Amino acid sequence: MIRVAGREGAAIMKLGARQMMLAKAISEHDHLIASKLAYVLAGGDVRAGTLVSEQYMLDLEREAFLSLCGEPKTQARMEHMLMKGKPLRN
To answer: pTM for the full model?
Structure first.
């Protein structure tokens, strides 16, 4: 079992990502990715300190990954990496 930061921890991470976006350090799509990553790392929509299973965390990760795969900008990034061998900053 894994003790997670929960929605409170996700909010803090998302706030940091938003500040970076407003400072033009990351793009809007980077912000979307960071927000989904924060949700996964914090253990989803649960209270801080909740114990969750490894499978639960893996399910959150898969859900976020598949959601991002449906985004045109993510697809463009993957295609660019495969074709050019370097990241696309869109």
So the answer is: 0.91
Range of the domain at 11: 2-84
Torsion of CA 62, 65, 66, 68, to 10 degrees: 160
Q: Is residue 89 assigned to a domain?
A: no
Are 42 and 7 within 8 A, CB to CB?
yes
With beta carbons less than 8 A apart as the criterion, state whether 84 and 52 touch: no
Tens-digit pLDDT profile for residues 25-45: 999 999 999 999 999 999 999
Report the Cα 47 to chain-centroid distance in Å: 19
Distance CA 78, CA 86 (A): 10
